[in-house]
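Example with several molecule types.
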Amino acid sequence: MFKDARDKSIDVASQEMLTVAKKSGIETAWDRFEKQEPRCSFGELGICCRNCNMGPCRIDPFGEGATKGTCGATGDIIVARNLLRSIAAGAAAHSDHARDVALTFKLMTEGKAPSYQVKDQAKLERLMKEYGVSTQAELADAILAEFGKQDGAIQFTRRVPAKRLALWQSLGIDPRGIDREIVEALHRTHMGVDNDYVNIILHGLRTAIADGWGGSMIATELQDVMFGTPSPLRTEANLGVLKADEVNIIVHGHEPLLSEMIIDAAADPELLDLAKKNGAKGINVAGICCTGNEVLSRHGIPAAGNFLQQELAVTTGAVELMAVDVQCVMPALGSLAGCYHTKFISTSPKAKFPGATHVEFKEETALETAKAIIKEAVENYKRRDPSKVYIPNIKSEAMVGFSVEAILGALGGSLSPLLATIKGGSIRGVAAVVGCNNPKVKQDFGHITLVKELIKNNILVLNTGCSGQACAKAGLLLPEATERAGDGVKGVCKALGIPPVLHMGSCVDISRIMVACAAMANALGVDISDLPAAAAAPEWMSEKAVTIGAYAVASGIYVVLGTVPPVLGSPEVTSLLTHGAKGVVGGSFAVEPDPVKAAKLIIDHIEGQRKKLGI
Amino acid sequence: MKEIFVRLDRCMGCRSCEMACAVEHSDSKNLFEAIGQTPRPVKRLYVEQAEGFKVPLVCRHCEDAPCVAVCRTGAMAQDALSCIVDRDLERCVGCWMCAMACPYGVIGHQSGARKAIKCDRCPDLEMPACVSACPTGTLVFADEELFSEILRREAAQKMVSGKRSTA
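Resulting structure tokens for the full complex:
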């Protein structure tokens, strides 16, 4: 084992594969990350502006050189504008995903997408009631209208407690249509438009709310309707889920529209026969990133790994085909796949990659496309070079599928038992630990260290995204993991037969956590900002994570970040995000790269909230 | 005599100095043309990172320079008057003795050729390109006495105001 493999990841499977990669001369994200050092600190501080061609401009943080850009923008303005652009990009990513789901839902409703069916009729009916419509077609139109809405509110924002809604309205941050806020964010950050950093950041919160209580929530709800609402089931996670004697197919990206079909098609008897004819014992589908989380939580499809394992999976030499859709897919995969027999298939017209074969996914012919992709993989099995195969014999069991509905089910239909244990003090509070991997942090170290500290201190953890896969790999998503928890969480989870860390799905499924927070606040008759709750993104890297952090803060939640966002170039914006926001929306950000210290911040916050609630 | 000094805690790692150096040593001396030049223009100073600090390393043009002492062809020579160490392209045979002897690792090589390349302190310019390009005043082109004076003034300021050192 190379020492530096242990410095890069705490995951033993990753360490093994990094060693293999090094021996084979395979370049990974960690190598490229090192080649980017030293990084430009103007970028790190967020004080570089490229929004017009009088620039690029940058501010000297030491105050000796330029204090203003050509237009006169100060560091505060530049940092705030850059932050708003990140939020807009993140909201766009989640919401454009939601749009695709909503369009598919409409096509399905019209009978034009025969591969899809309604799998959760009860949820469909609840949504129709919520929207005040009587037919599925009306629901499809009403949800699609949320994107281009010019007047009226986004329906799901009405799920927040009345106090929260009144606060948003008084601040003027109740969003008016999903696309509108994103477009307005780009307008405001154009040269010479919004130059008041507070006003810019308020719009950032509005744009983020349009994602968290808009786009992301639409994605979650409609995916549940079409693919089923997750309920607890057992599965496995880590690179050891790849099989030496089967055709391995990896689904990677974020939208489940195609991967759902791939799962169906993988059970097709003709394709299984073909696999056997090609010398394989079966067809094994595994997931990476949130496409992985979607099929993990609904069907127990094993997770091959999280974000930083996408290249390592290919490096096993045992992947016949990787099918990707959108978001968090590294463009490095094309040339990497070229070193092996692996077929790298792009499927979205929005996301093409060098070195990929493009097989375009169309809703109308989804199952046929999935079958064609699997056939490619099966026929590729015989090209696998056994001398290049190394699958780490490492995987963990995990219990996943904790939708809000499933949690209520485990609690016997109401939140009251959970709230009683929180009030009684055996569970001190709830923390959401979410987000990405980032080579700035030893892979999974931030997630796992933080989560272990929290459950040890009797805080129930809710988990999504790459953090969810990290916890799955570390064995924290098992009822047996309650042994690592404090007595309070251990007692409650044992009685309910649930893990101390509840996997709630993909990154858009952080909307489930929002719904759970609103339900808890309503049950207690308080606002979300009064709850003994907090959130953390210990290894975040993407713009989507910025948006998630912003909508959590706008919803009243305290959010601890593990990597430093590019805002420190403006002391004013930094102070607003870390302190000022609390007085305005009740939530705020903190930055703490040390996960043990981050746990302490969360515990102190939760204890402070308990004191204020008098429990 | 003026030297290129480095104020260590100021470097942002933006690599503007590296970029400006390569451009100044290109045919066109223009960024947008230089990036298309073949062979590519090569920088002569390097921003490295150690213990979280970003450190620009540039030839110190040492007295009795080791790179000059080990050069067997006389390609590497120090001007008696300006003390600038430069190398004669014609005489350089690419033996890399200079690269091995340099304590700062600032001897590079010309792209596509066995020729050593190093800081020539921009003979066509009043102020070396790297210093002009530095947006934070990390690189200072000054007489040694003036540089020390700058540091002394900063130290004095720090003593009276309790502010952080900038040296």
